[in-house]
Structures are given as structure tokens and as C-alpha cells.
Amino acid sequence: MNMLKIFANRTEAAQMLAHDLHEYKGRNPLILAIPRGAVPMGKVLAQRLDGELDIVLVHKLGAPFHQECAIGAIDETGWVYINSFADEAGGTGAFLEEEKHRQLLLLRERRLRFTPHQQAIDPRGRIAIVIDDGMASGATMIAALHTVRARQPAELICAVPVAAPESLEQVRPLADRIFCLLAPTGFFAVGQFYRDFRQVEDEEVIALLSRNHKDEKSGTHP
Predict the structure, then answer these.
(1) Cis amide leading into 36 (omega within 30)
(2) Angle 53-158-98 from CA coordinates, rounded to 5°
(3) Looking at the 3D structure of the chain, how many domains does it have?
(4) Which of 16, 121, 160, 185 could form a disulfide with 54 if both were Cys (CB 3.0 to 4.6 A apart)?
């Protein structure tokens, strides 16, 4: 890969992002992680920047015969972003309506599972940092930024370790600032830039968010 940087794991990537985001330390930023992979990263950022951790729930819409290919994304309100190549991938008509319905139900189930005893933290008037472990098509980040922007943060920031250059350009107008460590031309998939890109399971997300909620209630730092 022409000596491109490869992160050891999500923790290392989050630590490097925290370094670049150091100007927000002590300003009580709200770190909004896109589940599941970005939640452990969000925990690192919240600790390093003296901020709060929460999630922003969005989900990609998969192509008919290749669910990993994102033809778009949906947020909890049902707002949908559709990629320009959705037609070519067969993501139209009845299939698209079924996929939207299926993913919206999944988001509602995840909200109940991930934060059953905690309301989403309101980003209104705050520095909101939306984080993911990488951007391929950019669809989920676009949906996440849209849903957070609608809640009127004082500043909206997109932070990712790695992104496809074309996705970065699509996202750029939607955030006040973007922090991206790598935007390589040889981008194929997010996982190619991590030595350890294990799947983050629901149980880990629940544990991190539950622990964060208990810390907030007790007044200790996340």
C-alpha cells in the first residue's frame, strides 16, 4: 500500500484523533459514536477530551445482493440519504422501501438495547463530535451529521481515522470541521487500514454505555 499508515487497532486510531482534537479538551464536547465499531473509540475520545459519550444511531441501507455495499443510510427519524449509484445497484422501488423499513426497525431495537435507561444527550448548543472508525461510501456519516445538525449543536465536527477521498468531499459541506488522519487514493475498505479490525459486539457497546451512564450519575469522570 505504498507505506500507507495502518492503525494497530481502533484504540490507537482514537488516541491519534484525540491528539488532533486537543483544542476541544476541557470544553465539555459531546462525543457521538456511530455503533458499533466507533463506540470504543468514542470512549477514548471522551476520556482524553474531558467530554461526554453518547451514540448517534444510523444504519446503512444495503444493496440487494451485497448487504455490505451501502446504497444509502437511514437515521432514527426515518430520514434517508441515497447514494448516487443506488439505481445501478438495484436499490430502488419495493426493495428500497423494504430495506428502509427493516433498518428503521433495527435502529429502534438498538436504541432499546443500547440505552434502555438513558435518554439521548441533547447536543443543542454544544460542541458535537461525530466519530466513526472510517468512511467508505460516507452514507452513514452523512445520515449521522444530518440528524445531529437538526438538533442545533454550537459546532458540528466529523472525526474519522480514515476515509475514501471522494466520501470525504461529500461529507465536507455537512460539518463545520473535519478531522481525518488518512484519505488514501488506494482506499478499498475501512478494515484494510487496521491490523486488528475485530467486530465490536452489542455486549461491548452496552457495557461501555452503561458504565458511562453510571459514571455520569455518580459525578465521576467518564
Answers:
(1) yes
(2) 85
(3) 1
(4) 121
Residue type, 218: S
Query: How far is residue 143 from each of residues 57, 81, 116, 200, measured CA to CA in Å?
Result: 9, 6, 23, 21
216: CB partners within 8 A, 6+ apart: 52, 222
Q: Is residue 204 within 8 Å of 39, Cβ to Cβ?
A: yes
Q: Are 177 and 205 in contact (CB under 8 A)?
A: no
Tell me if 30 sits within 8 A of 126, measured CB to CB.
yes
Cα 59 to Cα 161: distance, rounded to the nearest angstrom: 19
Q: Which domain holds residue 44?
A: 10-57+120-218
pLDDT digit string, tens, across residues 56-92: 999 989 887 676 677 889 999 999 998 877 666 555 6
What would the grid cell of residue 190 be?
Answer: 475501512
Other Cβ atoms closer than 10 A to 189: 11
Cell of 94: 419495493
Within a domain: 72: no
pTM of the model: 0.88
**Would you give the end-to-end CA distance of the chain in angstroms?**
37
